[in-house]
Amino acid sequence: MDHSIVFVGGGNMATSLISGLRSAGHDGGAITVVEPDDDKRDSLSRDYGVNCVANADGDTLAADVLVLAVKPQMMRNVTQDLATRMAHARPLVISIAAGVPLAGLRAWLGEELAYVRCMPNTPSLIGAGATGLYADDSVNAEQREIAEAVLATAGMTAWVAREELLDAVTATSGSGPAYFFAFMEAMQAGARELGLDEHTARELVLHTALGAARMAIESGDDPGTLRKKVTSPGGTTERALDTFADGELSQLVRKAMQAAADRADSLGQELLAEKS
Ligand SMILES: NC(=O)C1=CN([C@@H]2O[C@H](COP(=O)(O)OP(=O)(O)OC[C@H]3O[C@@H](n4cnc5c(N)ncnc54)[C@H](OP(=O)(O)O)[C@@H]3O)[C@@H](O)[C@H]2O)C=CC1
Ligand SMILES: O=C(O)[C@@H]1CCC=N1
C-alpha cells in the first residue's frame, strides 16, 4: 500500500510534486492536501483525484508523511498551529521551503519528529525535476528512503551532506529553471528582432534548449566540450560567445547564484529571529 501523504499548502510546488506522484502511480486516495483556497482545492481534486481539506485536524495529520509546502514567511505560524493539532500523529516531516532551517521547524512543530529538508523545482510537474535533500542523524535509513522515494517520483534526487548546502541547491536547481526561462525569453526576443515570427522564434528557441540539455545529459560530454563543437573558428557562434564574454556573462551568473544563496540564508536568519 502507498504511504499516506499530507501536503500542507496546495500551491505551485505542491501541485508539481502531486503531479509527479500521481504520474508515478501513487494512489490519489492516499494523498491529502490542506489548502485554504477553494479554487485550488477544487482543481487539485479534479486534476489529480486527491483529497483536499481547508483545515487539518489530528486525523488528517496522522499520515506517514507530512510535506510542508507553504511560503517560508508563513512556515512559523503554520507549523505552530499544526503543532496544536498533531494529537498523537508522528509523521515523517518533509519541508520543501527555501531557507527555513531544521532548528526552526523542530522548535515550532515538535522536537520529537523526524525531519527531512529538501529543495525541489517546478519541472517536477512533468517528472523532470531535480531535488536536493538533507537529513540529520534523527532520520533513520528507512525514513531517508521514504523521503527519497517521494521526491524521486518527480525527477532526479541528490543528498547533500550539510544543511547549509541546501542554500547552494536552492541557488542552483531550485531557482535554476527561472534562469533558463529568462534566457529563453531573451533569445526569443532576439530572434524576433532578427525578423522571425513569434511562433517560429518560440519553437526554435525551446527545441534548441531541449536539444542542448538532452545532448549534455545523454552524451556524457561536459558542456564546455559540447560548446566547443558548436563553435567553428572565425564563425558565427564565436562572435556571439565573445559578446557574452564582453558582458562578463559567467561572472554575472555566479553573482546571481551567490545572491540567491545569500537570500536563502537570510530568509532562514530572519525567520529564526522573528518574535513568536
Ligand atoms: N516555486 C518554486 O519553484 C519552488 C518553491 N519552493 C518552496 O515551496 C514552498 C511553496 O512555494 P510555492 O508552491 O511556489 O508557493 P504557493 O504560494 O504557490 O503555495 C503555497 C500555498 O500555501 C497555501 N497556504 C497559505 N496558508 C496556508 C495554511 N495555513 N495552511 C495550508 N496552506 C496554506 C497558499 O494558499 P493561498 O494562496 O490561498 O494563500 C498557497 O496555495 C515555498 O516554501 C518555496 O520556498 C521550493 C522549490 C521550488
Ligand atoms: O524563489 C523562491 O524563493 C523559491 C525557492 C526556489 C524557487 N522558488
UniProtKB/TrEMBL annotation:
<dbReference type="Pfam" id="PF14748">
    <property type="entry name" value="P5CR_dimer"/>
</dbReference>
<comment type="function">
    <text>Catalyzes the reduction of 1-pyrroline-5-carboxylate (PCA) to L-proline.</text>
</comment>
<keyword id="KW-0560">Oxidoreductase</keyword>
<comment type="similarity">
    <text>Belongs to the pyrroline-5-carboxylate reductase family.</text>
</comment>
<feature type="region of interest" description="Disordered">
    <location>
        <begin position="221"/>
        <end position="243"/>
    </location>
</feature>
<dbReference type="GO" id="GO:0004735">
    <property type="term" value="F:pyrroline-5-carboxylate reductase activity"/>
</dbReference>
<feature type="domain" description="Pyrroline-5-carboxylate reductase dimerisation">
    <location>
        <begin position="163"/>
        <end position="266"/>
    </location>
</feature>
<dbReference type="InterPro" id="IPR029036">
    <property type="entry name" value="P5CR_dimer"/>
</dbReference>
<feature type="domain" description="Pyrroline-5-carboxylate reductase catalytic N-terminal">
    <location>
        <begin position="5"/>
        <end position="99"/>
    </location>
</feature>
<dbReference type="InterPro" id="IPR008927">
    <property type="entry name" value="6-PGluconate_DH-like_C_sf"/>
</dbReference>
<keyword id="KW-0641">Proline biosynthesis</keyword>
<comment type="pathway">
    <text>Amino-acid biosynthesis; L-proline biosynthesis; L-proline from L-glutamate 5-semialdehyde: step 1/1.</text>
</comment>
<keyword id="KW-0028">Amino-acid biosynthesis</keyword>
<dbReference type="Pfam" id="PF03807">
    <property type="entry name" value="F420_oxidored"/>
</dbReference>
<keyword id="KW-0521">NADP</keyword>
<dbReference type="InterPro" id="IPR028939">
    <property type="entry name" value="P5C_Rdtase_cat_N"/>
</dbReference>
<dbReference type="InterPro" id="IPR000304">
    <property type="entry name" value="Pyrroline-COOH_reductase"/>
</dbReference>
<dbReference type="InterPro" id="IPR036291">
    <property type="entry name" value="NAD(P)-bd_dom_sf"/>
</dbReference>
<keyword id="KW-0963">Cytoplasm</keyword>
<protein>
    <recommendedName>
        <fullName>Pyrroline-5-carboxylate reductase</fullName>
        <ecNumber>1.5.1.2</ecNumber>
    </recommendedName>
</protein>
